[in-house]
Amino acid sequence: MNFASDNTGPVHPQVMQALLRANEGHMPSYGADLIMEDLTARLRDTFEAPEAEVHLVATGTAANSLILATLCPPWGTAFCADIAHIQEDECNAPEFFTGGAKLSLIPSEAGKITPEALRARMAIEGDRGVHGPKPGPLSLTQVTERGTVYSVAELTALAQIAHDAGLPVHMDGARFANALVSLGCTPAEMTWRAGVDALTLGGTKNGLMGVEAVIFFDPAQADGFEFRRKRGAQLFSKHRFLAAQMLAAFTDDLWLDMAGAANAACARLAAGLTESGHATLLFEPDANMIFAEMDAAAHARLQAAGAQYHDWQDNLTGARQTRPAARLVCNWSTSEAEVDQFLAALAG
Ligand SMILES: Cc1ncc(COP(=O)(O)O)c(C=O)c1O
Ligand SMILES: C[C@@H](O)[C@H](N)C(=O)O
């Protein structure tokens, strides 16, 4: 019963088979292989963005930080939610790779920021001239760090505010596929058509071994990224093994099938938690992540049964939590049986 993170899940067998196929013989290195050529064409087609620039890195932190470094000068600031991963869980990588840019934090509710909160934060940073940082990109996480999903309309409204101020928009899409399946829209509708300029397209949490795509929908905004990637030690020599993973995911919609399975397991778990009477959902689980309070006795039973999940004491909403809280994450391999085993242990 492992609900610690989608990072703890296995790699999909079709991805492993793709790696074995890519392991035959020799291929050009550093991204000059035909697999990367095919992947670039596939992603441009998937996102209806024939001019998009596509690059691969190994981690979400690398993708986020190198994109922000490309979009934000060292004297700038990027706007993000107060609980954003780039703020809380990347060990200052965004600040490091930008060469010193700040992160301007925006109060969030259930992981999401509102247009009003964004405007208020931008106003603070925007009127100090050279005495303050230069306003820079807006970074939005989709699926958010609280398991919620922005609607296309919400994304569009936030991106419009940024664009009206001349600021680019980055999307941390570490769980992009989960959000897309949740909304049922197209990749283009949830990105560039909504105003997103650069995307971290998550592969690892989706079910790959370790690869994230970086997509700049306007190649003019990608200037310098490849140098930053190389200097950041993120350009793989045997790059074909990154490309093979991602191409496998974007073949026959495997990426959507994996996200759909994770979201379905999450929905089953969320319903069972609510019906149990032993747990309360803290936020609406729109994709594959649940945040819930539970009875201390239920928590003890789950621990005794060996269930794996993060204890969650949210420092921003801690006052609301009077019982043990948990973050529960489902991945492509989470089975109904595993969910039901968890619910049985919860109920005792
Ligand atoms: C929302 C979000 N963004 C980015 C990342 C960074 O990914 P990585 O751990 O591969 O650096 C994570 C990690 O799970 C994440 O949850
Ligand atoms: C660092 C931790 O938050 C990781 N990003 C996860 O979601 O499991």
UniProtKB/TrEMBL annotation:
Catalytic reaction annotation: L-threonine = acetaldehyde + glycine; L-allo-threonine = acetaldehyde + glycine
Gene3D superfamilies attached to this UniProt entry: Aspartate Aminotransferase, domain 1, Type I PLP-dependent aspartate aminotransferase-like (Major domain)
GO biological process: L-threonine catabolic process
EC primary class: lyase
Cofactor: pyridoxal 5'-phosphate
EC number: 4.1.2.48
Protein keywords: Lyase, Pyridoxal phosphate
Alphabetized GO MF terms: L-allo-threonine aldolase activity
Keyword Transferase in record: no
Role according to the record: Catalyzes the cleavage of L-allo-threonine and L-threonine to glycine and acetaldehyde.
Family designation: Belongs to the threonine aldolase family.
Protein name per Swiss-Prot or TrEMBL: L-threonine aldolase
